[in-house]
Write a structure and sequence with these properties.
Blueprint (H helix, E strand, L loop, with lengths): L3 E15 L3 E2 L5 H16 L17 H7 L19 E4 L7 E2 L4 E9 L6 H14 L8 E10 L8 E7 L11 E6 L11 E11 L1 E3 L2 E3 L4 H19 L9 H8 L3 E10 L2 E4 L4 E4 L2 E10 L5 H10 L12 E3 L1
Antiparallel strand pairs: 1-5, 1-6, 1-8, 2-4, 3-5, 6-7, 9-15, 9-16, 10-11, 12-15, 13-14
Helix pairs in contact: 1-3, 4-5, 4-6
Length: about 325
């Protein structure tokens, strides 16, 4: 890659208290992401009838930035695309349970990236408002009790949890951010320190290769997807310039790392898109995969992906994995 690039992030845990019975699907990513999008537009959009692409305010609007992120007119990359990756990840409650009684707790995580961190008050206000609107089947209402900031999620030994918002004071306290260091100098392919790496995919993961959804995950396909996602997040949301990265060279070296063992399974789920008025299949793979080869040079990318997810649908919490 040739340069050191930092992706600024902040991770938050939201604690909700059910006020009414709430019924949610077993995978809750669509409910939380869809509910948030609906409430967010109600809260911040000045001209609700227009699509963001046709709106005069799109380059100065918080909703457009968070959900449609239009590439600036002078962008160096992504000229063919209408929108950059979302600068947030919603990690829904991990449990499979569907029913919540009044006073039950519901917890989810929110990860903000780069400039979006400045808009945390909008996210808090919107999830508070969504509690009054209601979520799930029957639109059960909840109260947003607390928001906590999880410092340094990449370094567990330094991790700290700080309450930065609560329903009593309704004030936001200062908090710390973290930086994911994509140090290209660590891509030293001359070191032949072969080893193994096992990844455990916790939420459905949708990886595209050659324009198609793939279940046959190879290491170079994973690295391609991480490079694309991280470079775009860096460029559009953190003010970085990844144009000096040797994408082709990195991918060629990634092809030398092989799959040693694979225990992946497909998980099907659907979401309803109100904007497109249709049900959309959002299936992806879950489970474990072990790679073998010269993995160390790629670890900064893989550790960053552990925080920021990989593949399509990350806003719904898809593509979450853990390094085992």
């Amino acid at each position: 890659m040739g340069t050191v690039v930092n992706i600024k992030t902040a991770s938050f845990s939201f604690n909700l208290k059910a006020l009414e019975p709430i019924i949610l699907p077993s995978y809750k990513g669509s409910t939380f992401r869809g509910g948030f999008g609906y409430a967010f537009k109600r809260v911040v959009c000045a001209i609700r009838e227009k699509e963001c692409t046709d709106c005069l305010l799109k380059e100065r609007c918080v909703y457009s930035y968070v959900f449609e992120t239009p590439p600036p007119s002078d962008t160096k990359i992504m000229r063919k695309y209408k929108a950059a990756p979302h600068p947030f990840v919603i990690e829904p409650p991990p449990e499979r349970r569907r029913g919540y009684k009044p006073d039950d707790e519901i917890n989810f995580r929110l990860i903000l990236i780069g400039k979006a961190i400045d808009y945390l008050p909008y996210f808090i206000y919107t999830f508070d408002e969504l509690g009054r609107i209601g979520i799930g089947k029957g639109r059960g209402k909840y109260e947003l009790k607390t928001v906590k900031c999880e410092n340094n999620p990449v370094i567990p030994a330094k991790a700290g949890i700080q309450t930065i918002y609560d329903s009593e004071t309704k004030t936001l306290k200062p908090f710390e951010t973290s930086a994911l260091n994509l140090d290209s100098a660590s891509l030293n392919f001359e070191s032949y320190d072969y080893g193994t790496l096992t990844l455990h995919f916790l939420t459905p993961t949708r990886i595209h290769y050659n324009g198609r959804l793939t279940f046959d995950l190879e290491f170079h396909i994973l690295i391609r997807n991480l490079l694309r996602r991280l470079s775009l997040l860096c460029y559009f949301h953190c003010g970085g310039d990844p144009s000096a990265w040797d994408f082709k060279g990195i991918i060629e070296k990634a092809k030398e790392v092989k799959v040693k063992e694979k225990n992946l399974r497909w998980y099907d789920w659907e979401r309803y898109s109100g904007r497109q008025e249709t049900r959309m299949k959002m299936g992806g793979f879950l489970g474990d995969i072990t790679f073998e080869g010269n993995i160390e040079p790629f670890m900064s990318l893989i550790k960053a992906g552990e925080v920021l997810h990989v593949g399509k649908g990350t806003g719904f919490g898809l593509g979450k994995y853990r390094i085992v």
